[in-house]
Amino acid sequence: MEDNSSRVTEFILLGLSDTRGLQLLFFTLILLAYTMVLLGNLLIIVTVRTDPKLSSPMYFLLCNLSFLDICCTSVTVPRVLVALLSGHKAIAFEGCMAQLFFLHFVGSSEMFLLTVMAFDRYTAICRPLHYTAIMARGACWALVAACWAGGFIHSAVQTVLMLRLPFCGPNTINSYFCDVPPVIRLACADTALTEWLMASNSGLISLGCFLVLVASYVLILAKVRARVSQGNWKALSTCASHVMAVTLFFMPCIFTYLRPAGTLPTSKYVCAIYTILSPMMNPLIYTLRSSEVKESMLGWQNPGVHPELHLESRSYSTPTQ
């Protein structure tokens, strides 16, 4: 029988540094990055929601991506900022589990959404004649709902597996937020089976979505490789920027989760790539490169301009075989 009095009631997050000077430097940099995430993604959401010209499925999905990026950073960053400024590193056990749940909920939902966005690009470029029917508004809502549902199921499984483990000390986490790899090492039990279950859950989702994304962009490049028109170079540029964004997000996740937690140490600085850097870069990579979005933000009125998606699909589309 487990002694409840010996259960851990709080964890100590070591954070990014114990040096006061570095803590202030990290606070400044992270606050700046968080501000950019909030402002950039909120600007995109407001722009897409208020401009009728940006009503294509691509911009609908990008709007959802911006919302997920805000949620992803807000799960971890505010508490990190408070800890860096005040030096308070303790987090209640329940708060730690809640942070772990929402981090995986939002993170895996974003993985699924990025995969849907790659499917949207593939359909627009490789099957332009069927695009309107395949990516109808109802289908887009259903795909986004499926992304959220998939993220919830994944995160619920992770959290339930964690809650079943006993934690009786030590309670020091070598990270700046609660996540599966650093927390599971503190369990007072044999966690080998649980680690493999979690690795197969999180790791295979990360790897599977990434492979689907790569395959879709390979098919897109194969579709346009024989043409060298201006529209095709635009398509290649768009695909290249999307590949850079998904690589920035997926590779650290694959490195972190596609293995049992105890096999190799996980760098907290690697985790910063997908919790802070990637949400900050997504507005620049995905949306702010679009001339239609920039024109809308600047208040330009140009009724003859159609969303970038249709420009791309018309410029190098061929009849469906």
Automatic annotation (TrEMBL):
One of its GO terms (molecular function) is olfactory receptor activity. It is found in: Cell membrane; Membrane. One of its GO terms (cellular component) is plasma membrane. InterPro entries: GPCR_Rhodpsn, GPCR_Rhodpsn_7TM, Olfact_rcpt, Olfactory_Receptors. The chain crosses the membrane at residues 24-46, 58-77, 97-119, 139-157, 203-224, 236-257. Gene3D superfamilies: Rhodopsin 7-helix transmembrane proteins. Residues 40-286 form the G-protein coupled receptors family 1 profile domain. It is a multi-pass membrane protein. The keyword Transmembrane applies. Its main location: membrane. PROSITE patterns: G_PROTEIN_RECEP_F1_1, G_PROTEIN_RECEP_F1_2. Keywords: Cell membrane, G-protein coupled receptor, Membrane, Olfaction, Receptor, Sensory transduction, Transducer, Transmembrane, Transmembrane helix. Belongs to the G-protein coupled receptor 1 family. This is Olfactory receptor. It comes from Serinus canaria (Island canary). The lineage of its organism: Eukaryota, Metazoa, Chordata, Craniata, Vertebrata. The gene is LOC103822230.
